[in-house]
């Protein structure tokens, strides 16, 4: 399918101060858009001026939450290239999410071509200072009008872009994590592996309560026994336990992060043993007390790697690596960021030039 391009006549002033970009607050001049109708498929793929959606208040997404999204970034390399990181993986995951939510797939080729066409047009919006990037948000919503519950027969697919600032202007600062033992995020058979808005809506309550207790993130336990660690807000969790890098196995309730997958590959390249398995919270707290929990960090596109300095579970806290970022965490961060910005050899062929 050919992507039409309709350029904006007036463009916004780009922020002069890249240190004040923040995350997701500024939207660019253009967006990608296409529509879907059952029987007809996807049609009129196009890049158009960024604009408001006009929707009927009875549109199904607004009532029953049939919605999925993706998140990835475009990076400005030192040689002037603009790079995407493993966008095919976002396309694949988007279609797995679509399958779970009874939504139509978007051909992988079209998904990645849409990203490339849009980013090419918004090239000047990709910020250049260290650690900054252009965040990309592909989204699909159910647009059929009606209050009867069923899978919508019409959808919108769009991509919007937002220049985002360096996450760690002062270096990687370890965060405090609250291990949630009341609320749950997902269960096997549910929608945990899908990137769908509802998973986030239901997580807000625990996040607010954790924030009130002085913790930046919630670590979710499994929904059945509340015994095994799953993931945090929008990051998968990694633990360096007695020399082995351990992370929860993908069992249906965990979001299969592309950062998670990349970190596992990089750690194996470095000769670090990696274990994908059930990790009991009791095991972690015990390891925290006897010194075997050497490092812990979250992994996700937004923050890349987020070191964890403290875990609090049922009123008890353990400090990890004296509340400082660990050596392996720092090395994995540097390596991954180096590849993403084209500063380090990309031997797995992960980056895609726009
Ligand atoms: C997006 C997301 C992640 C991280 O995935 P990446 O592909 O690494 O960005 C982890 N957990 C949840 C719940 C997410 O939505």
Q: Residue share in helices? A: 10-25%
Q: Which fold name is given in CATH as the topology of the largest domain?
A: D-amino Acid Aminotransferase, Chain A, domain 2
Largest sheet: 9 strands, mixed
Number of domains: 2
| Outline type | globular
**What top-tier CATH class of the largest domain fits best?**
Alpha Beta
Question: What's the assembly state of these chains?
Answer: single chain
Bound ligands, each once: pyridoxal-5'-phosphate
**What gap, in angstroms, lies between the N and C termini?**
19 Å
Average of the residue pLDDT scores: 95
Query: Helix count, per DSSP?
Result: 8
CATH superfamily of the largest domain: D-amino Acid Aminotransferase, subunit A, domain 2
Q: Hey, roughly how much beta strand do the residues contain? A: 25-35%
- Uncertain stretches of 5 or more adjacent residues: none
The secondary-structure element order is: EEEHEEEHHEEEHHEEEEHEHEEEHE
Rounded to an integer in angstroms, the radius of gyration calculated over CA atoms is: 21 Å
Number of strands: 18
CATH architecture descriptor name of the largest domain: Alpha-Beta Barrel
Short description:
The chain has 354 residues and is an alpha+beta fold.
What does this structure look like?
This protein is α+β, with helices and mostly antiparallel strands. The protein is built from 8 helices and 18 strands. The strands form 2 sheets. Strands 1, 2, 3, 4, 5, 6, 7, 8 and 18 form a 9-stranded mixed sheet that branches. Strands 9-10-11-12-15-16 form a 6-stranded mixed β-barrel, surrounded by 4 helices. Helix 2 packs across helix 3. The chain is globular, with a radius of gyration of 21 Å. The model has no long low-confidence stretch (mean pLDDT 95). Pyridoxal-5'-phosphate binds next to strand 12 and helix 6.
